[in-house]
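Let us work through a complete example step by step.
Step 1: write down the sequence.
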Amino acid sequence: MTLRLSANLGFVWPDRPLLDRIDAAAAAGFRAIELHWPYDTPAGEVRSRCERHGLKLLGINTVRGKPGENGLGALAGREAEFQASVDQSVAYCREAGGTSIHCMAGFVPPEARKEASRVFVKNLREASDKAASQDLMLLLEALNPRDAPGYFYATQAEAARIREEVGRPNVRLMFDVYHVGVSEGDVLRKLAHYMPIIGHVQVAAVPSRAEPDEGEIDYRAVFAELDKLGYEGWVGAEYKPRADTDEGLTWMRHLGVTP
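Step 2: predict the structure and record it as tokens.
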């Protein structure tokens, strides 16, 4: 199996500061990392630590916004704030050596969804042009309604529709198997259907979001399907460890994969 695993340092080794988490990922054998909101740590320090270990930095997220918010991209009247967050993410990626940005849409009440769709598409077109100038990919991630009730979109079909409306080649889907499993199910068929527009894959157990060696999803089948489909990207280990992160890394051996 040609799977390439990245460590999502937003969740794993949560008891350590970011630079120490980078050290831990390298010590565990990972060759790539991905982050959530690393902005409190200077981008140059992240780049230097990654280079020290030969680690590739993948994606980061645009900021959530005010306390209780979960992104700004689809919020009418907040366009300038969202574009400022994109500028921040592009600049951080450029300095830190990252390759992609997850553009967070935010919470939208049902009566505002039509206007939110127009706003998000317009925002993403502008953001994608900024990202393309730095050879960066933008990612759209549908979040399940159990963990993120009220988030603007929750399904792969919605994400694909948004991408089609944006009409930019550097906008792709973040296929998080955990979110798909909770929101929709039918993971293998959806992987095959959306593979041409998937830019990144993430994994965690369903329903616990712990290490992916438990629960409803058979990750041996998922990994085999990714291999069958010829997926050449990274698979992000974005799970919340049951206990100590290092002790929990046995999940890879259980599933027959290596970082």
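Step 3: interpret the result. Strands lie at 5-8, 32-34, 56-57, 59-61, 100-102, 137-140, 171-176, 198-203, 235-237.
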